[in-house]
Queue: 3 jobs
Job 1
Amino acid sequence: MPKSELYLHYRIKLINTLNYVFDINRNDFDRCWTSKLIISSNLSGSPIFSKLKMVKVLTWEDVGLPEASNVLNAATISKQGLVYTSGSVGIRDGKLPESVEEQTVNVIENLKTVLQAAGSSLDSVVKVLVFITDPADFGKMNGVYGKYFITKPARSCVVTQLANPQLKVEIELVAEVE
């Protein structure tokens, strides 16, 4: 197949897949599964995404947190030596604390565990994405956050609804392998 046809083929495949992911008639659980399927299978052979292929996948079992998720992996490590974590929530040892401060501590401790398993640490984080459910909780979350992230990596914070109404904070990271 000529290069232009191959590009068009994968572009159509990508558009169809994204249309499916963002179909408003599907529930959020389906979207979570779909996003995993996109990364793991549908576009894995695409030349458009070939430079982004991950060389190592870490499951939650690999990092010692088997209760964390049965849908997503804990992290992937790129060819370029970057660790991309999945979003982590405040559940630790099967318990979800009520306060945003305690949830933030658990989230960051979970992420520290993931980064250690990937050969990295909080000192090597280059980008953080924080999701909180209540803008009034920002100061509380930020107070805990500041104790862990001394290097002050780039960060974005989004106020949104999370999958479980009891969750108050979710964080995902990008870090360099040390």
Note: The first strand starts at residue 54 and ends at 58.
Job 2
Amino acid sequence: MKKIFKNDAFQFLSLSMGITLLVFAVEAAKGRIVVRTVYFTLLDVLDIIVAVSIFIGLFQVWVKPATIVKWLGKGSGLKGFLLVCTFPIFMGGSLFTIFPLLKTLREKGARVGALASFITAWGGKAPLLPLETQFLGWPFAVLRLSLVVLFAFIMGVLMDWVGDGPAKMDPNKEAREMA
């Protein structure tokens, strides 16, 4: 039970519920707006969360840690950086999909620099390119995507230089805790 109260998610949930109750106490109409917004937001993301959970479960079963280490681990070198600096640009999805994926990659042996490059490159969002070029033009879009790749590479190198530090995880920790 102690672990539940130390959990960051539990603490954020408790804080947000407390603030919501405070808003209700001060002005009930605004409190109802908060609850309605939370409700509809949860409905919007529920299908994403379920789909991502299934995907992460399949990923855990089908992808061996050795494969992740080969492509994104310490010895992957330039090919690993090229992969994580370019591939995520073409991925869609929200933070609800990316962070669980990154956690799984880390647990399977991806280095911190690869994760930093991945999340930086993912911000490039190539699926939005047609809309971006329509409003801002091709020169802007090409320059922005080029800079995303460059800075994803720089971010990865810097994060690897800093080291594994607090991002280091034990891949079997959660399984042992659940048992």
Note: Residues 29 and 44 are 23 Å apart (CA to CA).
Job 3
Amino acid sequence: MSVNQAFLAVTAALTAAVTGVYLTPSASAAPPPGSTVPSAGSSVPPTGPTVPPTGSTTPSTTAGIAPATSAAAPATPMATPATAAAAPAASTAPPTTKPANRLYSYDKTLVPLGASVKVELKSTGDSLWTRLDVSGLAPGHAYGAHVHIAECGADPKAAGPHFQHHPDPAATPTTPSADPAYANPTNEIWLDFTTDAKGAASVNNTHAWSFATNHWPRSLVLHAETTKTGPGVAGTAGARVGCLTLNDGH
């Protein structure tokens, strides 16, 4: 198995649910920091990552939004001596790959509390298959969705520009590619969708290329509008309303 194929196997299924404090100015109705609600069908607990079982190729992770004010908080909850002594051995916990991914919401209307996102990436030879499943979003809304080059953060800009198979040489960190020759659904991964009456949708596509070693996307970003294709605006899709960091398994 090549490095590229190994990466895709590890990242075959990434799931996250919006379950924490909104990263928007309005956070008065948010639950207490640290609360999580796993996505439907997930058996992974909200804490305590362990090594995945032998032969597993499609591990999944669940996550909640981190509080915007939690930067100084410890990485894991602090336990008293009594609770620490009573904690079960790590080997008894269900398998997972890494600490929970975070699904950031930048718009509480378009990515409400309880929304969920699942991304799948699969590769065979020189082809790439991508699937996006969402639920709990705004009903009947048309979203843009693309994979980006950097991990998500409290700032919607943290994910950087779109991932491109062949990067636009004219693009800069401050001026992302908007040239249709590069910013297009063949050279980038676009997963635009319109939700149904329950806020759910599924979309998939294929590409005649696969990720090169050390060149793969780090996040999936949801946008408020569908993706434009004209000169100077190609690849743009309005405000960033949500972001899921893609775990590369390393």
Note: The chain has one domain: 1-250.
